Amino acid sequence: MELDLQLYSVRTDLAVEAKEMAERHANAPIPGVNEEVEEADGIKVTRLSVADPAGSQAIGRAIGNYVTLEVPGLRGGDTGLQQKVSIVFAREFEQFLDKIGIGRDSKVLIVGLGNWNVTPDSLGPLVVENALITRQFYELMPDQISPGYRNVSAIAPGVLGLTGVESSEVVQGIVDRTRPDVIIAIDALASRSLERINTTIQIADIGIHPGSGIGNKRRGLTKEVLGVPCIAIGVPTVCYASTIVNNVLEMMRTHFGQMADGGAHTKEIMGLLDDISEQERLALVKEVLEPLGHDLIVTPKEIDEFIEDIANIVASGLNAALHEAVDPGNVGAYTH
């Protein structure tokens, strides 16, 4: 019987990683996937556009637009860098809204997905806590609102295990009553790369499926489901143990290949693992780990400090992007 390697594909929510894996497998650029990269001050911005069904199938991502900010320096806790990231994120998000046709006066609903009781999954609720909310003023005192602010509301609907209600059902009820023009959904993601955990922010206009990063298939927050454009903002906070083991094996293989003898003993050390593909190697790792219950979902030990920092970065950037009156150079002043 032939092994179905699709069952053992690397789990990632990041479009840039899906593209990298597809190009590595094809050993060539992927048609229908356009990429633009900028890098300055330690912040790498990658803008991906999946333009047609062929490109979508090749990388396993829906047709749409994806923007990724990668900032390895965030691991250092540098507050100056964090403010720079907030400013860049605000600029990219504002341009993203313009690109998909969301006007400056559009009503916005921010949805913070995740479980506030589980630190790696608490990004969404923390962003909601720090977002600048104005809908109540539009409802109660519209004539007293200063120029430069837009109608923004927010909700952290919890998770199915806590509420017994799907997040999309909660959001659907709010959409039906408040009629926002766009939904911004924030959630924690899973990555295949240890380097991107806690250092990456992704924006996408395809919506989001809560829990997809850890293998839970839930009713999505998408335009097709809710009838309103849905922008997803995600930060990878977890990685599968099998992915980590597979990455370590690849790092060992690369390390041995760079040794002074030109990797002459790589085959001797790695054995069969040196010949098989990444997917086949991952299948072997999962075959060993899963029966033992060891294919864990892993997060770095610094997650408590990081999740607060990245939630502030995202909330501050959103506040500046959504409200013209908020100074992008002083975005942190509007969070609490």
Automatic annotation (TrEMBL):
<keyword id="KW-0865">Zymogen</keyword>
<comment type="subunit">
    <text>Homotetramer.</text>
</comment>
<protein>
    <recommendedName>
        <fullName>Germination protease</fullName>
        <ecNumber>3.4.24.78</ecNumber>
    </recommendedName>
</protein>
<dbReference type="InterPro" id="IPR023430">
    <property type="entry name" value="Pept_HybD-like_dom_sf"/>
</dbReference>
<keyword id="KW-0645">Protease</keyword>
<comment type="function">
    <text>Initiates the rapid degradation of small, acid-soluble proteins during spore germination.</text>
</comment>
<comment type="similarity">
    <text>Belongs to the peptidase A25 family.</text>
</comment>
<keyword id="KW-0378">Hydrolase</keyword>
<dbReference type="GO" id="GO:0016787">
    <property type="term" value="F:hydrolase activity"/>
</dbReference>
<dbReference type="Pfam" id="PF03418">
    <property type="entry name" value="Peptidase_A25"/>
</dbReference>
<dbReference type="InterPro" id="IPR005080">
    <property type="entry name" value="Peptidase_A25"/>
</dbReference>
<feature type="propeptide">
    <location>
        <begin position="1"/>
        <end position="13"/>
    </location>
</feature>
